[in-house]
Write a structure and sequence with these properties.
Blueprint: E1 5-9, H1 13-25, E2 29-33, H2 36-46, E3 50-54, H3 62-70, E4 77-81, H4 86-95, E5 99-102, H5 107-121, E6 132-134, E7 138-141, E8 146-149, E9 152-154, H6 158-168, E10 175-176, H7 177-185, H8 193-207, E11 217-220, E12 224-227
Parallel strand pairs: 1-2, 1-3, 3-4, 4-5
Antiparallel strand pairs: 6-7, 7-8, 8-9, 10-12, 11-12
Helix pairs in contact: 2-3, 4-8, 6-7, 6-8
């Protein structure tokens, strides 16, 4: 956490104080905001490396704040929420959240999840492996951190890119949900099955000609997914 800038957006004073102390003790610079509108202002001002975002807030809630941030930034976002259903988590992932921590939570859990998100979203920043996939329609260039569809660059979030690379590096191999979670999200996420399904849907929409009939990311029902190479 040393050298990182973290923005905590929460209307609960106790949580703001606790998280500020937690991350500051780890060497991070911490800024806080009491609602979504204030949070967006602080985001523009400080450009944090990570956002801790409450959902239920006055003026502008966490859903809307997350969606507004995602219009122009891929900054990692961890949502704090008392909502626990799969539907709520799926909604947050679709809005662009990277992770969820359910209230009430222990400081250790929040810190571990924050570290995991930063590790995951920064996993390929310094990657020097020369992996490249190209079939004339889809190009995945790991070293350049770039995906191209029919000659045009496609914007993927860091997690989406990491997921696609992991699949493409294992062509034709059935990867279980647990394998994908461990290799893309980390061992801490072994029970977060919905993360994989939501992100697979996002990646398909960005790379497949017909996401409803995918040719690259194929579902193996009851098991997982596999990446199918295509040939020019």
């Amino acid at each position: 956490m040393r050298g990182k800038t973290i923005l905590v957006i929460d209307d609960d004073l106790n949580i703001r104080k606790m998280t500020e102390h937690l991350f500051a003790k780890e060497g991070a610079q911490v800024f806080t905001a009491t609602n979504g509108i204030d949070g967006l202002r602080k985001f523009y001002e400080h450009r944090p490396d990570l956002i801790i975002l409450d959902i239920m807030m006055p003026e502008e809630d966490g859903w809307e704040t997350c969606r507004n941030i995602r219009k122009f930034s891929d900054v990692p976002i961890v949502m704090l929420t008392a909502l626990k259903t799969d539907e709520d988590i799926t909604r947050g992932l679709n809005y662009g959240a990277d992770d969820f921590v359910t209230k009430p939570f222990s400081p250790g859990v929040l810190l571990a999840r924050a570290r995991a998100v930063l590790r995951r979203t920064g996993a390929y920043v310094a990657e020097d492996k020369p992996f490249m996939y190209s079939d004339g329609y889809l190009t995945i260039d790991l070293r350049a951190h770039r995906v191209i569809i029919k000659g045009q660059p496609v914007k993927l979030t860091p997690t989406e890119f990491q997921l696609l690379v992991y699949l493409a590096q294992n062509p034709g191999r059935i990867l279980t949900i647990q394998q994908i979670l461990e290799n893309v999200w980390g061992w801490e996420y072994q029970d977060s099955l919905e993360y994989v399904h939501v992100y697979m849907s996002h990646v398909r929409k960005k790379i497949e000609e017909d996401p409803k009939q995918p040719k690259y990311i194929v579902t193996e029902h009851g098991t997982g997914y596999r990446f199918e190479k295509q040939f020019p």
